[in-house]
Amino acid sequence: MRAVVLDAAGQPALAEVPEPEGPGELVSVLACGLCGSDVEKLGNAAPGTVLGHEVVARTADGTRVALIHHRPCGECGRCLAGHESTCEAFESSTIRPGGFAERASADGWVELPAGLDDARWTAVEPLACVLRGVERVPQGRVLVVGHGFVGRLFASVLARRGDEVFAVDRDPARSGPAPDGPVGAAVICAQGGAEAAIAAVEPGGTVLVFADAGPILAAPIYRRELTFTGSRSATPETMREAVRLLPGLELPEATVLPLERFAEGLELYRRREALKVVFTP
Ligand SMILES: [Zn+2]
Ligand SMILES: [Zn+2]
Hints:
Elements: E1 2-6, E2 12-16, E3 25-33, H1 36-41, E4 54-58, E5 64-67, H2 77-80, E6 95-96, E7 103-106, E8 109-111, H3 118-121, H4 124-134, E9 141-145, H5 149-160, E10 164-168, E11 183-188, H6 194-200, E12 201-209, H7 219-223, E13 227-230, H8 236-245, E14 255-258, H9 262-270, E15 277-280
Parallel strand pairs: 9-10, 9-11, 11-12, 12-13, 14-15
Antiparallel strand pairs: 1-2, 3-4, 3-7, 3-15, 4-5, 5-8, 6-7
The protein binds zinc ion (2 copies).
């Protein structure tokens, strides 16, 4: 089958690879979204890696599903404390070889109803990550730092629960409404977003770190008694919640390209000309 495989330099190229083998069930990939975390892995992940975890697929019995890419055990101390993505069981991928392929072996999924197309349903996974993160953000006035696809998911979900939402981006053309004063909480969705987040929150405020934001100064956290909290990835529960919520959310259109045009889609994303790129095998 065809898949986008990282070469010796960690760069993606279309290649013929063996059909995936168990232990999971063989599914046909319908669409897979490109995530910022995939792009960060280029040049770093091991040769032979197939990326892609925002996967919509069809199971052998014809059901359309969104794949669950990691699974927490649900029983250890970290899981019970709500830190499922740090569970030891969460380390191994449950999609083999990865989503940028014609087929995959999968250990679990959530069923997708009719109504949206395959490309749009790939947003279930990033939305599920966002839903888990939002639980750590106190309600009120919230600034989203980094207004790309994930930033917009945050803005939609926060607005939906009644928050007053502001959004800034290093690209002024992407920014949303600028904050008209201090905010109670900020969400960092972009590299280098810490400074803007810390500057915006009022004393006693909360900052959710949702991206590898780079170095963060401790002095303002100490002096202004800020709360920093992190959230990464999704759980099967938030995946199910995302399926229910997604049809009612307003989201930017994705650029949909066949797997053969992976390099082109990657460039569109890197040049910030596409907010979201989805590939179909
Ligand atoms: Zn992702
Ligand atoms: Zn666990």
